[in-house]
Amino acid sequence: MRGRDERTGELFSYVDLEARVRADHALRAIREIANQALVLLQPALAALYARRMGRPSIAPEKLLRAMLLQAFYSIRSERQLMERLEYDLLFRWFVGLGIDDAAWDHSTFSKNRDRLLDGDIAAQFLAAMLAQPRVKKLLSTDHFSVDGTLIEAWASMKSFKPKDGAGDPPADGGRNAEANFRGEKRSNDTHASTSDPDARLYRKGAGKEAKLCFLGHALMENRSGLVVGACLTRADGYAERLAALALMEPYADRPRAITLGADKAYDTQDFVRELRTMKVTPHVAQNANGRRSAIDGRTTRHAGYAVSQRIRKRIEEAFGWIKTVAGLAKTRFRGVERVELAFTFAAAAYNLVRLPKLLAESR
Q: Where is this region: Disordered (predicted)?
């Protein structure tokens, strides 16, 4: 007989979330790796909260798992994330909420973000994930690649105004007054964004439009293509090279040979000299655009140079995932610290997506 289209409710519910998630679901392996990293973060997380004072907070581990889901499923805001957490059993299982537990308010993320910033939790989570023995076996400790990408700021060009206040709109113009920038010279020396003072006007190359943005930097190991270091800086012409040196600092002065692949934007005398001082071989692409390259035949004649040049392009896969899936093509945050937290955490989420398959292949 035909079933009736009516809603029925039960007084009691016996739903086992563990049984509702199939055994081969991709999030099972991801959750296991993430939980092991969170166990290593217990001392750092405990230090962020006062002992025996006030009401118990929402567990930071649950907040971090929810932030991972936001990156995995391209959820645009914390409001939408909490709405999804209300009805999605898979989300509740991954975060660690019971079927009858209430989802918390979206403002909880804003209130706890400062704690995560103070503890540098995003970078520690990335490091804890890579420190697991089975993950560590996948990583190369000798060969790396580095690159940077633009992260558009949450600020419009209309907010980019003269620092001396000369560009203030008329009193009757409203919040979104008409503006004509044609013929006006604008630079970071004379102008600043009123929405996000940390954002800088920058363009990636000749012929490209200038945008208010930040620069995200990533260090990739060449064996598995995993991100082993990430940071974010204000956008300027020196930021990429300075960030690359900072990311390579933990691997400097080692007795064995270490290589660093990079594109031609890193082909400068100062950068190459600094790498060699750190005992890192610069496998940098030659920039032969009307000037002498800092990389000569002493480096390019080796077969490893060509290998580094081929593999270094895989770092664009990480940037593509971070900007499209994780939603950081244009950030939702303001201030370099908050944008860096989101960028580093998105890099960790990218590794988590790739790790289950890499671990299965290594068995």
A: 161-201
114 and 218 fall within a common domain: no
Statement to judge: residues 243 and 330 lie in one domain: yes
39 and 113 in a single domain? The answer is yes
At how many degrees (to 10) do helices 26-40 and 60-72 cross? 140
Q: How far apart are CA 16 and CA 245, in angstroms?
A: 50
Phi, psi of 245 (to 5 degrees): -65, -40
Question: For position 245, which CATH number holds?
Answer: 3.30.420.10
| Parent domain of 87 | 17-119
Q: What is the rounded CA–CA span in Å between residue 222 and residue 19? A: 38
Reply yes or no on whether the pLDDT at 318 is more than 70: yes
User: Percentage of the chain surpassing pLDDT 90?
Assistant: 61
Is there a single domain that holds both residue 229 and residue 317?
A: yes
297 shares a domain with 250: yes
What is the number of structural domains in the chain? 2
199-231 tens-digit pLDDT:
999 988 777 888 999 999 999 999 999 999 999
Residue 145 and residue 218 in one domain: yes
Instruction: Give the model confidence (pLDDT) of 98-153 as tens digits.
Output: 888 888 888 888 888 888 887 789 999 999 999 999 999 999 999 999 999 999 99
Asked if pLDDT for residue 45 goes beyond 70, the answer is: yes
280-284 and 191-193 strand pairing:
unpaired
Assign 3 a pLDDT band (cuts: 50, 70, 90): very low
- The pTM of this model reads 0.90
